[in-house]
């Protein structure tokens, strides 16, 4: 039993999610993510159950732990009462704490989660703002959305509800500052802010500097696809 596994088993999500896996594969048979990706909850449980740090480290560096959509279908069917979704969350936290997430394309998308969903919640109490949903990145939303996006400040004035004209949660109300403070304290106490910081640090370590992280981020914003940034070979 290695140090990574020891750290994993301290996580309450791991403790709640893993009883003992008999490798029956029922979870994989019902998993929607397994149908479309190189992903199998049975494999995840098998690796974790091996308690082998080498295999766990490979898993933490791979895309696999980011494919789970947290639908909990596996939990309802598992004959041993396991919950792979919660084990996956514990693995994600471990991957971020150790910077392993930055080794995979899906893992690096945590920068988006941190800078958009995480920072929005801390600043405004909402995960996603209308400003984040640019027509260039979401063409499937069509002409109506394009119109709204371009005229949002004007249209928000028509609605006459208390919200900022820019960077607003849209039609939602503004969250009072005292409630936002409470949210920030929860994030601080539960370790979410530490994880958000670890995402920035992990990306910096992987790409070599803060400036490269910004370049990566800009490539993503401008082209809608982070894969257009070439990851430096720092082996
Ligand atoms: S359904 Fe449960 S016991 Fe079967 S492989 Fe999945 S986690 Fe293991
Ligand atoms: S929670 Fe994750 S592992 Fe379980 S069935 Fe849904 S996508 Fe698959």
Automatic annotation (TrEMBL):
InterPro entries: 4Fe4S_Fe-S-bd (IPR017896), 4Fe4S_Fe_S_CS (IPR017900), HdrC_iron-sulfur_subunit (IPR051460), Helical_ferredxn (IPR009051). One of its GO terms (cellular component) is plasma membrane. One of its GO terms (molecular function) is metal ion binding. It comes from the Bacteria. Pfam families: Fer4_8. SUPFAM superfamilies: alpha-helical ferredoxin. Keywords: 4Fe-4S, Iron, Iron-sulfur, Metal-binding, Oxidoreductase. Residues 12-42 form the 4Fe-4S ferredoxin-type domain. This is 4Fe-4S ferredoxin-type domain-containing protein.
């Amino acid at each position: 039993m290695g140090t990574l596994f020891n750290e994993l088993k301290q996580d309450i999500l791991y403790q709640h999610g893993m009883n003992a896996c008999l490798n029956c594969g029922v979870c994989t048979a019902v998993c929607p993510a397994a149908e479309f990706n190189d992903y199998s909850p049975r494999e995840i449980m098998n690796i974790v159950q091996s308690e082998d740090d080498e295999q766990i480290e490979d898993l933490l560096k791979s895309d696999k732990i980011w494919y789970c959509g947290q639908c909990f279908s596996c939990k309802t069917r598992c004959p041993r009462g396991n919950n792979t979704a919660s084990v996956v969350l514990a693995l994600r936290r471990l991957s971020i704490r150790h910077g392993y997430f930055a080794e995979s394309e899906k893992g690096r998308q945590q920068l988006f989660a941190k800078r958009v969903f995480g920072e929005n919640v801390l600043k405004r109490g909402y995960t996603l703002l209308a400003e984040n949903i640019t027509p260039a990145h979401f063409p499937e939303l069509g002409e109506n959305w394009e119109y709204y996006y371009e005229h949002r400040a004007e249209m928000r004035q028509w609605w006459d509800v208390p919200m900022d004209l820019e960077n607003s949660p849209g039609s939602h109300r503004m969250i009072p500052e005292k409630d936002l403070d409470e949210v920030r304290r929860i994030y601080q106490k539960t370790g979410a802010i530490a994880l958000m910081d670890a995402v920035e640090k992990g990306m910096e370590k992987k790409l070599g500097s803060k400036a490269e992280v910004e370049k990566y981020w800009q490539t993503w914003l401008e082209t809608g696809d982070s894969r257009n940034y070439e990851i430096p070979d720092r082996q």
